[in-house]
Write a structure and sequence with these properties.
Elements: E1 3-6, E2 11-14, H1 20-28, H2 30-40, H3 43-53, H4 62-68, H5 84-88, E3 105-107, E4 112-117, E5 123-125, E6 132-134, H6 135-139, H7 142-146, E7 152-158, E8 165-167, E9 172-180, H8 198-201, E10 204-211, E11 215-222, E12 230-232, E13 243-245, E14 250-254, E15 259-265, E16 270-272, H9 274-281, E17 285-288, E18 293-297
Parallel strand pairs: 1-17
Antiparallel strand pairs: 1-2, 3-18, 4-7, 4-17, 5-6, 7-15, 8-14, 9-10, 9-13, 10-11, 11-15, 12-14, 16-18
Helix pairs in contact: 1-2
Length: about 300
């Protein structure tokens, strides 16, 4: 059972896990984990699965999915979808989500369940949730990794039932972006005991963002089991850098599957919200709507 604190309702709630029985088998049984490690987590299978989810044959899943997970469809633009992936990347109606004001506000760039970990070391295993992070391996760049020692790691975990577009958390400029190839393991906490290096093994896309007060921030989108593709809608691989972006501007989206966005923030740049830090210290994720404040830049 996975529980989280809902910032809106101010209650601790229980997550409805999509494919919970499969995840239990895949990561808690020897046979299941062997097949997951050597077969189910491979990119080609996620891509093949993505082809089906983008076909008209997958449309029949939509109605049952909406009912089972009680998705409030009045919040979204579209009512007719050509495929399950078309439904999966649905957009909010204008005005349904607004980004907090303030030029030094670090906003929630995804609607998700958040954890924050201060005082980053170059390599460490986190007691909370039990996953492992090596900054050099995560970023595949030792010099960049050194910039975030002593800083804060923020993880936004998106379940399959969530809104799956991600946005820039502040206004600034993008100075670097690249892809790190990898597998597609589940990012559900149930998988961490069997695969604690999931964020180091999964495919991910890294962008370095800059802000005059918030410093340099690494924004990392991590693929997960079933995710056929991470799409960058704000830029292409041929983009001439640096490029400016606005707070709340869509950066991209995940196709079907649970996914994760990670932010690395430099030391003494952002004072994060009390609820996020208190809940994270208790091993409790905080569900935060898109655009809410995660924290404010420290005074100069």
């Amino acid at each position: 059972m996975i529980q989280y604190f809902n910032r809106v309702t101010q209650n601790v709630e229980t997550e409805k896990v999509y494919g919970g029985e499969y995840l239990k088998w895949a990561y808690e049984s020897k046979l299941g984990f062997f097949l997951t490690e050597h077969f189910f987590s491979r990119k080609w299978l996620s891509l093949l699965f993505g082809v089906y989810e983008s076909s008209q044959f997958s449309r029949s899943k939509i109605e049952d999915f909406i009912k089972r997970y009680e998705i409030q469809m009045d919040d979204f633009e579209k009512t007719e979808y050509t495929s399950f992936n078309d439904f999966f990347i649905r957009k909010f109606k204008s005005g349904k989500r607004n980004f907090a004001s303030g030029s030094n506000t670090f906003c929630a760039g995804a609607e998700a369940r958040y954890l924050a970990f201060p005082d980053l070391k170059m390599s460490q295993k986190f007691r909370v949730k039990g996953f492992e992070i090596d900054l050099t391996e995560l970023l595949r760049n030792e010099e960049t990794a050194k910039e975030f020692i002593g800083g804060t790691l923020v993880i936004a975990r998106l379940c399959p039932v969530d809104y799956h577009r991600f946005h820039f958390p502040f206004s600034g400029k993008l100075t670097e972006h690249y892809r790190v190839a990898g597998h597609f393991h589940s990012v559900n906490p149930a998988a961490f005991p069997a695969e604690p290096k999931v964020f180091l093994k999964n495919e991910r896309q890294v962008a370095i963002l800059e802000h005059e007060s918030l410093g340099r921030v690494a924004m990392i989108e991590v693929g997960a089991l079933g995710v056929g593709k991470i799409v960058q809608s704000a830029y292409s691989s041929r983009l001439s850098l640096p490029v400016k972006f606005d707070k709340g501007q869509e950066k991209g989206y995940f196709l079907f599957g649970g996914s994760t966005v990670i932010w690395l923030i430099q030391k003494d740049k952002v004072k994060f919200s009390a609820d996020l830090m208190a809940n994270s210290a208790k091993d409790l994720e905080t569900w935060i709507p898109l655009g809410h404040s995660l924290g404010e830049g420290w005074p100069a």
